[in-house]
Amino acid sequence: MSIMVTRSSMPKLEDYIEEIKPVFESHHLTNMGPVYKKFQKQLIDYLEVPELSLFANGHMALEVAIHALGLRCESGEVITTPFTFVSTTHAIVRNGLKPVFCDIKPDDYTIDTGKIEELITDRTVAIMPVHVYGNLCDVEAIDRIAKKHNLKVIYDAAHAFGVKYKGIGAGNFGDASMFSFHATKVFNTVEGGAVAFRDRKYGEPLHELKNFGIHGAEDVTEIGCNAKMDEFRAAMGICNLRRIDECIAARAGAAGRYNERLGNVPGIRLCTPQKDVLPNYAYYPVYFDECVFGRSRDDVFEELKKHDIFARKYFYPAINEMTCYRGQYNRNTPVAHDVSQHILTLPLYEGLSQEEVDRICDVILG
Ligand SMILES: *Cc1c(COP(=O)(O)O)cnc(C)c1O
């Protein structure tokens, strides 16, 4: 039996059917209907955030969030990291802004806050850090820098569903945070996403921009797009949200087994638990130091593949090395470059058994 890097959590079919029955009766399929509103309220409660807008996917949520915060401007710069999924940078560039890449920390792979200020210019409009793998950025340092330089902060919190810092939901930091509900994430609505925010004034622009920029009944005031979450995805979200705690607990079990097997192996570096952070076990990244471990990341990747086990070089290459961006933006991010060449995320999902984790570790430690 092959083991994939992830496997989507799903509700019981009967539960889903129960949830979509009213949709079949009402014929109200999309446009912020009753299921959308019910799901939105449940998510606000679960994530403990003041405000939340639901989207068709995480990427459009991020793209629209930048627009809604009024950041689109000629020659504006956004400080971000190259060690993330390409969506983060695409969202900046597709808004006409310029990404300025800041390096990451070697221990948790989030933005190195000690290197942000040297990148700030009079064109900088925002910081877009990533809670990569569900590891929380240094939100306090970022907040201080943003306030000092009057910058907006939008977190790519695609990986941080349910993560808390000092008991506060991850979606409470910065001006806005984007969560992704893609099928491969800790929590899914098949495709889907959300923007969490504190300032109510962003509610209307987010709402209108994801609906073509339509304002009221008879006017269009912005050049928006279509990125609304429909009733069927919202229903999937309601069903999966009921099971989220057991789903994260199952991930924690598998991650714990990995820790036991890989925790004290010379040349293998794991993410250490972050202080004051309640984790969600979204990914299991492993850094292979070839000189000490004896085999490279790519060797381990190929060996696993031979055994029908599919890990992922996540994130490789770094975004400033990708064909679409190479040579256009700064590439002086040596830590991100190094990590992208040594990191492998191992299979981790709700149904992954201890025996399967052992099978994976046996191949790695072979
Ligand atoms: C998944 C992901 C996104 C995009 O979310 P989608 O819901 O797939 O559009 C953005 N950023 C990061 C870091 C992601 O992992």
Textual characterization of the structure:
The protein is an alpha/beta fold and 366 residues long. Helices cover 36% and strands 15% of the residues. It is built from twelve helices and 15 strands. It has a seven-stranded mixed β-sheet with strand order 1-9-8-5-4-2-3, sandwiched between helices. It has a three-stranded antiparallel β-sheet with strand order 7-6-13, with no helix packed on it. It has a three-stranded antiparallel β-sheet with strand order 12-14-15. Strand 2, helix 4 and strand 3 form a beta-alpha-beta unit. The two termini are 19 Å apart. The structure holds pyridoxal-5'-phosphate (PLP). Pyridoxal-5'-phosphate binds next to helix 3 and helix 4.
Biggest sheet architecture: 7 strands, mixed
What is the number of helical segments per DSSP (H or I, 4+ residues)? 12
Structural class comes to alpha/beta
Cα-atom radius of gyration: 21 Å
Which strands sit side by side, in order, in the main sheet?
1-9-8-5-4-2-3
Strand proportion: 15-25%
Overall mean pLDDT score?
97
Distance between the termini: 19 Å
Low-confidence runs: none
Q: Shape from CA axes?
A: globular
Named once each, the bound ligands are: pyridoxal-5'-phosphate
What is the succession of H and E elements? HHEHEHEEHEEEEEHEEHHEEEHHHEH
Number of strands: 15
Helix content: 25-40%
